[in-house]
Specification:
The protein is of the alpha+beta class and about 250 residues long. About 35% of the residues lie in helices and about 25% in strands. The structure holds zinc ion.
């Protein structure tokens, strides 16, 4: 029987047997893992916190790869404040869902893990607009999975992207100018483009000054949702709630 000690963030949990839960954890060294939390639904359970999404802890896991069990968990940092504000919580849930979609079982991904914990930390501890954090995380994910958005040039004619003449192509997941644009697109306003060009140069803790209007928020959410469908074949459920918030 092996023993794994690793940091991890709980992405989701579901009921298993009478008193247990199965948690999905994303880790830097082992990618995405599932593990049983025994007896966690009992009133006296000590590791209840480890069954909550956003839990960032040091985990001790035992067993085989087919059935790991959580033998211990110690909280590293609390992201609890994310759940105290509705918009933060929905954005945070979307970030967890994105991490779930792109993480791979037993495949190390230090960049994804660092991006995830930085995004959640900023969401929990700062006044940064949750949608700024969401878009910055998404742009990072596109980059580390090999689908970086080219924010400078049209994908077809390669002319510099500028003004209000930019579109996100749903069929290719790229930005194009209005002349090269195809049928199915999401408009990208001049300000949205400028904000994206700016935010990719910044760390999560440097995003606080970016202010979004409804226009950018709406364009960003649509771009993320469309690109996750195209690139990772994932229909992000949390975006249904996100797109309903006004
Ligand atoms: Zn073009």
């Amino acid at each position: 029987m092996q023993q794994i000690i690793t940091q991890g963030v709980v992405l989701n949990a579901f009921d298993y047997r009478d008193a247990d839960k199965i948690v999905t954890i994303v880790t830097p060294e082992y990618g995405r893992l599932s593990a049983v939390l025994r007896g966690v639904k009992k009133v006296t359970a000590k590791m209840k916190f480890a069954s909550q999404p956003f839990c960032y802890a040091q985990f001790k896991l035992v067993g085989g790869w087919d059935m790991l069990t959580v033998a211990g968990a110690t909280e590293i940092e609390s992201f609890f404040d994310i759940t105290q504000d509705y918009r933060s919580m929905v954005a945070g849930s979307a970030i967890l869902e994105m991490a779930d979609a792109v993480s791979v079982v037993q495949q190390p991904d230090h960049l994804l893990f660092t991006g995830l914990t930085s995004a959640l930390r900023t969401l929990a501890n700062s006044d940064t607009d949750p949608d700024v954090i969401l878009m910055r995380f998404a742009l990072g994910v596109f980059k580390i999975t090999g689908y970086a958005l080219n924010l400078k040039n049209c994908k077809s004619c390669e002319k510099p992207l500028a003004n209000d003449l930019v579109r996100f192509e749903v069929g290719t997941g790229e930005l194009s100018c209005i002349h090269c644009s195809e049928n199915d697109f999401i408009p990208v306003s001049a300000r949205s483009l400028e904000i994206m060009q700016n935010m990719v140069k910044l760390q999560f803790d440097e995003l606080e000054k970016i202010v979004l209007t409804e226009v950018e928020i709406n364009e960003f959410r649509q771009i993320i949702r469309a690109n996750f469908k195209l690139r990772y074949n994932r229909d992000l459920k949390s975006f249904n709630s996100l797109l309903e918030i006004e």
